[in-house]
């Protein structure tokens, strides 16, 4: 299993850090090119490799962590996804104004899925802040909860296994039409909550 990340801001870097900590190789990319990620890769260790957007996108599992307004450009021109898993970590709001984008009744994940035709989209890693993602997932006598949602059952199972490997407790919310609406920020009921599954 190979993993890529498109977007190296706070969330993308946090995901790279926890993957690296688990000994998982990951290719990280941004819009400015691999040279600008050399310091990040060095800081996070030998499992993190700087690459192009295209190199990150060709991996088996691809995290996308890009400001909402920049998503169309970030996804444009990439090769066919051919059924690979794309993890949507995005929220349809961004600094500095934090005004929600107009989605015309759709969830942000449904809009995002239209940008990655042929991909199996799973919504995950979107409701916790970067500092909680990178903190020890063992907390208060249990494991920190990470929710996920997607229309492809096998893709959800793969992402669940990855979440569990990272030390979190995975909680499957089912199809995007249901789960992504609960996870969506703003508007969903789950992003504001930091939950722990007591073992």
UniProtKB/TrEMBL annotation:
Q: Domain Pyrroline-5-carboxylate reductase catalytic N-terminal, which positions?
A: 3-91
Q: Which domain of life is it from?
A: Bacteria
Please name the InterPro entries in this protein's record: NAD(P)-bd_dom_sf, P5C_Rdtase_cat_N, STEAP_metalloreductase
Q: Which GO terms describe its molecular function?
A: oxidoreductase activity
A Pfam family this chain is assigned to: F420_oxidored
Keywords (alphabetical) are: Oxidoreductase
PANTHER family from the xrefs? Answer: DUDULIN-RELATED
What is the name of the protein in this document?
Answer: NADP oxidoreductase
